[in-house]
Design brief:
136 residues, globular
Length: 136
Amino acid sequence: MSKESTKTFSVAELINTVTKEKFGEAYAGNFTVRKPTMGDMMEVSAKQAAFFGKHNIDPDNISESYGPLYVRLSTFTYVEVLCSEVPEWFGRDALDPYNDNDVQAVYAVWGEVNAFLGTFRPDKDSPESGDAGDKS
C-alpha cells in the first residue's frame, strides 16, 4: 500500500472547534507538509530540546499547564522543519496568543500535521513496528 509523501491543506476550510464555524479567509493559504526523514525527526527533537533547555522545562515532567505550550511548540517546530509551503499569517510572531481564533488555528494545524504523520506510523502488531520478532 503506497502512502502519499506530502499533504496540502488550508486552515480556512477547517472547522474551529470552539466556534463550530470555518476559520475563513483570515486563515487562507496552503500548508504543504512532507513525510519526515530520520534527519528531520532528529532536527525536530533538537529544536524542542533547545527550547526546553533554554526555559528550564523538564519535558518528562510537563504539567497540565505546559500541555498547550507543548502542542504549540510541536506545531511550530514540525511546520518549520517539514512544511515547504506556509501561509503568511502563520508564524510565532504573527499570531496573537490572546486571540482565541489564532490559538485554535494553531491547534488545527497541529491536528492536520499530526494526522498526516500518523499515516506513516506502523500498527503496533505489524512487523514494521519493531515489536514483532520471532515469538516462538
